[in-house]
């Protein structure tokens, strides 16, 4: 198996090293693992592509490249330049530092990389490590992902739903904020929503007197609706959520015929 990995935390991020370990085990001795990752952190860029400017791609080692762009840019660079003669069989994006459950998924560059791969017709999975009091200051905050990443991916590749339609399915995996030994298992879960916990801004003044705005987040330990991704994560389960890039609100189409 030929695997491409990327992320949004940058090519030197510790989560990418965890994903390289997982990918090498998944690919096996006859497989290949390629890295095309952002040269700098790209958290929160979603499915952004560098449509109005070129990006520099630098080779950092054997099958290892850094791109001055987003995770989606990295996938495009890999598919149409770096790996154009032998495209990947699978794209893995992560392991993100922090969860991409619930509404976080909408902003995530980690998911943006997986989404672009799916749009390019390649099987894709985004992986993220939920942070919390039990893991944030642990010697290895990524322990749950490191230990359970390979069997979770193997189960998904063996028994998951993979489609070849226009908006093919890709997957969002979030590892819970607990030590590896406390992970209770895997749950298929829908995307949740944290009510009254959206992003905001906080104004500050620089030493020169100029006014700036910092984007602020919200606490990540609040419960969401039962059975959703963040809910099962906070209960100690790995969440696996099937996703599509199709943004149509299909449930509203029939009612909308009233305006025709």
TrEMBL record:
<feature type="binding site">
    <location>
        <position position="96"/>
    </location>
    <ligand>
        <name>a divalent metal cation</name>
    </ligand>
</feature>
<dbReference type="InterPro" id="IPR030048">
    <property type="entry name" value="SurE"/>
</dbReference>
<dbReference type="GO" id="GO:0005737">
    <property type="term" value="C:cytoplasm"/>
</dbReference>
<dbReference type="GO" id="GO:0008254">
    <property type="term" value="F:3'-nucleotidase activity"/>
</dbReference>
<dbReference type="GO" id="GO:0008253">
    <property type="term" value="F:5'-nucleotidase activity"/>
</dbReference>
<comment type="function">
    <text>Nucleotidase that shows phosphatase activity on nucleoside 5'-monophosphates.</text>
</comment>
<keyword id="KW-0378">Hydrolase</keyword>
<feature type="binding site">
    <location>
        <position position="9"/>
    </location>
    <ligand>
        <name>a divalent metal cation</name>
    </ligand>
</feature>
<keyword id="KW-0963">Cytoplasm</keyword>
<dbReference type="Pfam" id="PF01975">
    <property type="entry name" value="SurE"/>
</dbReference>
<dbReference type="GO" id="GO:0004309">
    <property type="term" value="F:exopolyphosphatase activity"/>
</dbReference>
<keyword id="KW-0547">Nucleotide-binding</keyword>
<feature type="binding site">
    <location>
        <position position="43"/>
    </location>
    <ligand>
        <name>a divalent metal cation</name>
    </ligand>
</feature>
<comment type="similarity">
    <text>Belongs to the SurE nucleotidase family.</text>
</comment>
<dbReference type="GO" id="GO:0000166">
    <property type="term" value="F:nucleotide binding"/>
</dbReference>
<dbReference type="InterPro" id="IPR036523">
    <property type="entry name" value="SurE-like_sf"/>
</dbReference>
<dbReference type="GO" id="GO:0046872">
    <property type="term" value="F:metal ion binding"/>
</dbReference>
<feature type="binding site">
    <location>
        <position position="8"/>
    </location>
    <ligand>
        <name>a divalent metal cation</name>
    </ligand>
</feature>
<keyword id="KW-0479">Metal-binding</keyword>
<dbReference type="InterPro" id="IPR002828">
    <property type="entry name" value="SurE-like_Pase/nucleotidase"/>
</dbReference>
<feature type="domain" description="Survival protein SurE-like phosphatase/nucleotidase">
    <location>
        <begin position="3"/>
        <end position="195"/>
    </location>
</feature>
<protein>
    <recommendedName>
        <fullName>5'-nucleotidase SurE</fullName>
        <ecNumber>3.1.3.5</ecNumber>
    </recommendedName>
</protein>
């Amino acid at each position: 198996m030929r695997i491409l990995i990327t992320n949004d935390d940058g090519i030197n991020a510790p989560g990418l090293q965890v994903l390289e370990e997982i990918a090498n085990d998944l690919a096996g001795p006859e497989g290949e693992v390629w890295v095309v990752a952002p040269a700098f952190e790209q958290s929160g860029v979603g499915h952004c592509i560098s449509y109005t400017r070129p990006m520099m791609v630098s080779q950092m080692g054997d099958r290892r490249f850094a791109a001055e762009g987003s995770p989606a840019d990295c996938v495009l660079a890999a598919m149409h330049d770096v790996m154009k003669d032998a495209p990947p069989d699978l794209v893995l994006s992560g392991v993100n530092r922090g969860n991409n459950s619930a509404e976080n998924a909408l902003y995530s560059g980690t998911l943006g990389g997986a989404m672009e791969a799916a749009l390019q017709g390649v099987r894709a999975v985004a992986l993220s490590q939920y942070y919390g009091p039990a893991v944030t200051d642990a010697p290895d905050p990524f322990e749950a992902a490191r230990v359970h990443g390979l069997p979770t991916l193997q189960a998904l590749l063996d028994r998951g739903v993979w489609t070849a339609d226009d908006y093919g399915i890709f997957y969002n995996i979030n590892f819970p904020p607990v030590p590896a030994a406390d992970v209770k298992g895997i749950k298929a879960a829908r995307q949740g929503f944290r009510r009254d916990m959206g992003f905001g801004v906080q104004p500050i003044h620089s030493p020169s007197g100029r006014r700036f705005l910092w984007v602020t987040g919200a606490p990540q330990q609040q419960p969401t609706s039962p059975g959703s991704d963040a809910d099962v994560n906070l209960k100690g389960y790995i969440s696996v959520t099937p996703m599509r890039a199709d943004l149509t609100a299909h449930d509203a189409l029939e009612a909308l015929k009233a305006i025709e």
